[in-house]
């Protein structure tokens, strides 16, 4: 009789519609809000104890249900969920006191030491790199307008900041507005980020007349000639600037009157071979 009743209840839960589920959730939420604080704490403690005393089979079943629910989401919902979790983690970290932050940092250091002691291979690092750069630097910061990777930005919430005159809102490819963690940290301190676009750091578009010039033509009309030493890095073969950079101003006003050279000043002459 008990088994039949449990089976009946299980089938009923599986066949419920979305409207019934929402109504049940609203009723539970209202019932929880009507509880007093002590009752809420007892309920939370009971739930935590239940999770701690769950068996391995129950944990695997719960994890499987969550994975199935996550896989059933579309891409936008997954991205939104990841962003919400990242913001929540960031806010929780900012709310910690120095002592708690110290404990958290020590735990991370111990984890790093443990990871270093374990044997690794190059394939594992390649997979980690591919996961980190999978999305690409397509997320635009609404303060500095830089395009960054996903791990470097969080969802923008303007109401969190006291400084409101530094936003140059640009939606990223997914329609969301982001802010990089560097600008986020500065704005939380009520400071204007040094790389903010409003600090006269706008990048103007190159005119079509200049964009089509060849390298030699660019040198001829350049107002400054830059002398710098570029060396190749041993790993990755990337170039980097070493030493001081020297900018030499050039008077290029006469270039427009000299070039192109008119025919009467050239050493060529026209000849008719007819």
Give structural notes.
The chain has eleven helices and six strands. The protein is mostly helical. A hairpin with a 6-residue loop joins strand 5 (224-232) and strand 6 (239-249). Helix content is 50%, strand content 11%. The chain has helices at 2-14, 18-33, 37-52, 56-71, 75-95, 98-117, 122-132, 181-188, 208-211, 215-221, 255-258, and strands at 139-140, 147-148, 153-155, 178-180, 224-232, 239-249. The longest helix is centred in the first third of the chain and has 21 residues, at 75-95. Among the domains are: 133-189, no CATH class; 208-258, no CATH class. It starts with a helix and ends in a 16-residue tail after the last helix. The protein is elongated, with a radius of gyration of 31 Å. The model has no long low-confidence stretch (mean pLDDT 79). It has a two-stranded antiparallel ribbon. Residues 190-265 form the DUF6570 domain. This is DUF6570 domain-containing protein. Pfam families: DUF6570. Residues 15-38 have a biased composition (Basic and acidic residues). InterPro entries: DUF6570.
């Amino acid at each position: 009789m008990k088994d039949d009743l449990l089976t009946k209840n299980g089938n009923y839960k599986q066949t419920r519609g979305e409207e019934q589920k929402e109504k049940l959730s609203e009723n539970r939420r209202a019932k929880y809000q009507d509880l007093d604080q002590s009752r809420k704490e007892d309920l939370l403690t009971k739930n935590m104890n239940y999770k701690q005393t769950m068996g391995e089979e129950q944990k695997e079943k719960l994890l499987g249900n969550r994975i199935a629910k996550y896989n059933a989401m579309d891409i936008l919902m997954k991205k939104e969920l990841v962003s919400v979790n990242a913001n929540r983690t960031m806010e929780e970290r900012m709310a910690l006191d120095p002592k708690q932050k110290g404990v958290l940092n020590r735990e991370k250091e111990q984890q790093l030491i443990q990871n270093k002691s374990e044997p690794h291979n190059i394939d594992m690092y390649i997979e980690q790199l591919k996961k980190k750069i999978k999305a690409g630097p397509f997320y635009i910061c609404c303060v500095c307008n830089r395009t960054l990777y996903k791990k470097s930005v969080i969802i923008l919430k303007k109401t969190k900041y006291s400084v409101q005159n530094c936003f140059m809102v640009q939606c990223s490819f997914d329609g969301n507005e982001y802010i990089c963690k560097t600008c986020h940290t500065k704005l939380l301190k009520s400071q204007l980020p040094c790389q903010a676009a409003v600090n006269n750091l706008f990048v103007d578009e190159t005119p079509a007349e200049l964009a089509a010039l060849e390298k030699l033509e660019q040198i001829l009309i350049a107002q400054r000639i830059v002398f710098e030493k570029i060396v190749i890095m041993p790993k990755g073969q990337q170039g980097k600037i070493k030493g001081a950079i020297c900018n030499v101003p050039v008077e290029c006003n006469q270039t427009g009157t000299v070039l192109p050279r008119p025919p009467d000043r050239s050493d060529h002459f026209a000849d008719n071979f007819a």
